[in-house]
Specification:
By secondary structure, this protein is mainly α. The chain has helices at about 5-10, 15-20, 25-40, 45-65, 70-80, 80-115, 120-135, 140-165, 185-195, 205-220, 225-250, 265-280, 285-320, 325-345, 350-375, 385-410.
């Protein structure tokens, strides 16, 4: 095997884990809702969010390639106050985000196994399993299996969307009234949709943490080219799938008069029905298992990401890292997520919209932090972003800031 190929295989991982994290609520729920409620009208918004957020995720991977450390170290070097600010942002979002992701996973779990339990109880089971797996250090082995299952969902989604397109889409109901994007509720959903498209900007720090673990695992430090190729593959997958999920919702549900349910288990059944309605009932078990496995992968990745990030933040702020601190944060994240879910039973849409909106509102701040660090003096010329990427980042900052101001304007007036 060519040495370049061998080295890239050693590099490959953080970008794929990033894609696995993204292909959750933002895709299965929000993209599908966008298509089901608005048809293809919101497709430009999805593409805009993916394009304008790209630099800030790329900067995180670029920083780790340049320094061998997570961009969190870059925050600390710019000033402890920046790291404290990021810590506050993380604490403000982690319980809501963890709850939203696991809420959906719980619904899919109940649907797959036929469990007649409340969402909070199903979520509690998921949180316990996540803690046991992460505490036992078995995530790496599980990750390989989940990637394979996610691949099944990818192929199934493409197949279902293609068949739906071939069949001409849903039959438009005679009393169907299209929803208006340029309305208060329409703009608020638009902000929520872009909030996690492909995911929240403040989660960009996690790719560096995973890259650090990959370097320890393989004992190989990748080049900038290899690091960015790994990241770009994962990012491209998230963008393509966002478009496909939106298309599936538009082709199968838009104009049919069917509303996506607020109950997580019923919603899971509707989501799986998008596939079985196109591919055939024979595919139910495959799709149900793949969808649950994908969302469970997202749940465990989010719990791990927040736990790992808070552990590192506290180490940088306070000093010596404790062996038990990672597991303590895992417990805190899981317990906080459970408490939030218990307050939003049978209210899936509100919880998801809250989580994604909060993520979008803080996105300009998270983006500005990454921009500040990647153009700091500690980054050598060879690792600095090219001019076109710097220009896209500035445009991205304007994009995120303007839409955040629009959101507040609509909310207030």
């Amino acid at each position: 095997m060519n040495s370049n190929v061998r080295n890239f295989i050693k590099t490959l991982g953080p970008g794929i884990v990033f894609a696995g994290m993204c292909i959750g609520v933002s895709h299965l729920v929000q993209s599908t809702r966008a298509g089901a409620d608005y048809g293809f009208v919101l497709l430009p918004a999805v593409l805009a969010a993916v394009i304008f957020k790209y630099p800030f995720f790329e900067f995180s991977s670029r920083y780790t390639s340049a320094t061998g450390e997570s961009i969190l170290h870059g925050y600390a070097k710019q000033g402890k106050w920046i790291l404290w600010l990021y810590a506050l942002v993380t604490v403000a979002t982690m319980f809501i985000v963890t709850a939203a992701v696991t809420f959906v996973a719980a619904g899919l779990m109940g649907n797959l196994f036929g469990l007649d339990l409340d969402t909070d109880k199903l979520a509690g089971i998921i949180f316990i399993i996540c803690a046991v797996i992460l505490g036992g250090g078995k995530y790496n082995a599980l990750d390989g299996l989940l990637k394979m299952v996610s691949f099944v969902l990818l192929i199934s989604t493409i197949t279902a969307a293609f068949i739906a397109f071939y069949n001409g889409g849903a039959q438009i109901s005679s009393d169907f009234v299209p929803k208006e994007v340029m309305s208060g509720s329409g703009i608020i959903f638009l902000i929520a949709l872009m909030g996690w498209m492909p995911t929240a900007v403040d989660m960009s720090t996690w790719t560096g943490l995973w890259a650090e673990e990959r370097i320890k695992q393989t004992n190989y430090t990748p080049t900038l080219k290899e690091t960015l190729l790994d990241f770009n593959i994962g990012y491209a997958i998230t963008g393509v799938l966002a478009v496909i999920f939106l298309s599936l919702g538009a082709l199968v549900m838009y104009g049919s008069g069917t509303e996506l349910s607020n109950n997580s288990t019923i919603f899971a059944g509707q989501l799986i029905g998008l596939y079985t309605g196109s591919i055939g009932e024979w595919s139910y078990l495959i799709i149900a298992a793949a969808a649950f496995s994908t969302m469970f992968s997202t749940s465990i990745t989010v719990v791990d990401g927040y736990g790992r990030a808070m552990d590192r933040i506290m180490t940088l702020l306070i000093g010596k890292q404790r062996k038990w601190s990672y597991m303590l944060w895992i417990f805190i994240v899981a317990f906080g997520g459970y408490v939030v879910i218990s307050q939003y039973l049978n209210n899936l849409k509100s919880l998801v919209d809250l989580a994604t909106t909060v993520s979008f509102v803080i996105a300009p701040l998270a983006a500005a932090l990454n921009y500040k660090v990647i153009f700091s003096k500690e980054i050598d010329e060879a690792h600095r972003p090219p001019k076109w990427l710097k220009g896209l980042a500035i445009a991205g900052l304007l994009f995120l800031s303007i839409f955040t101001l629009i959101y507040f304007y609509v909310l207030i007036f």
